[in-house]
Amino acid sequence: MKIGPRMPDITFAQRxxxxxxxxxxxWAGQTISTFGSVVSNIAIPFAxxxxxxxxxxxxxxxxxxxxxxxxxxxxxxxxxxxRTARRPLLIGADVARAILLALVPLAALFDQLSIxxxxxxxxxISVLSLLFDVAYQSYVPHxxxxxxxxxxxxxxxxxxxxxxxxxxxxxxxxxxxLTAPFAILVNAVSFSFSAFAIRRTETPEEPPARxxxxxxxxxxxxxxxxxxxxxxRLLSLAAATALFNASTAIFGTLFLLYVSRDLGFxxxxxxxxxxxxGVTSLIGAFLVRRVVGSLGDRRAMVAMFLVVAIGNATVPxxxxxxxxxxxxxxxxxxxxxxxxxxxxxxxxxxxxxxxPDAWLGRVTGTFRVLEFGAVLAGSxxxxxxxxxxxxKTALWLSxxxxxxxxxxxxxxxxxxxxxxxxxVVELPAENVSLGAG
Length: 437
What we know:
- The structure is a single chain.
- This protein has helices at residues 10-15, 21-52, 56-83, 86-109, 115-144, 149-178, 180-199, 217-230, 232-262, 267-295, 297-317, 323-354, 360-389, 391-405, 407-411, 429-432, and strands at residues 2-3, 425-426.
- The protein is an all-alpha fold.
- Helix 10 crosses helix 12 (323-354) and helix 13 (360-389) packs antiparallel against helix 14.
- It is globular, with a radius of gyration of 22 Å.
């Protein structure tokens, strides 16, 4: 059975995706959801610090609660997204997150706030946010058609960059003006608005067709790994993604320590430098369609891997704090952030385009688990390498790892490497069934 692109709405051709009422609703919901997620990640630790006088162990536990659950349940979330329509999952995840977050100001109002409640809320938000993300990435191809994935993802990423930047800026002020628990209440309201916006989408959606009974959930979840393994393109992309995330996690773990301790930068000046990255990320979102259209999927991804490596190399090359050092760090933001944005949009769009609808959730969940695992391994490995061999050595190892990450894409025998090549996914009948037979 051939899985081809969905016939686009006539308004797509006339006005692009902004001409689609349903896309505008999904875009609004995703943007509001992103804003709420970022503010929550800021406000919950502040609630622990300010309201509960949290210890370093408490904060470490909160950090684990925000990351580990999504890693553990990623495959299962993908299977759930493939068992049912994705739109109700998006709405349900938003509503559930709103209810969970509302528990924090309610507990504070009655003087019942505790670190255990914050841990419970953090775990729930982590799981629900992953479910939302997996369902969202599986829903977009249905809503816009595979021919419009690059446009949809670039528009989403551009506005999400603005939402994330504003959330970082406003999160601290909300905590300061309202106190942390009631800043979290604002976030609960934002998730409610997101659910309302997504509920207004009207494109008909039915769960993927099945020819048998459901398999046990865990077995069905693990089958996503098998699908990735059977498709050489997905397998090479998974290997490249894992290597890239592990390598950049080394860099991310040690970056602040290196530029502050070894180079001598103060937090205030670093904040101004990082602001450059927010602007250049937007540029990347606007350029992605032109880059992929000119180079094709494989060459665009490989090129962005190499650009990220070049950009990250400016950090260990930088001298101690000076005008030149500022130039090196700004160059890092100018080079890396747009390339990373192009890479993120192009890889997600390619994965959505070549994966059949019935498997989108599990394939997305599989990639998210690989990404979380790679980041965890890279963070721990980077900490050990930095302590044993020095921060600069670890940063250079990270740069080399990003270059090596491009090799699986270069070595893949049938990866789409030309802009003129169209993807048609053949899905054997026996693989459509998600049942036991």
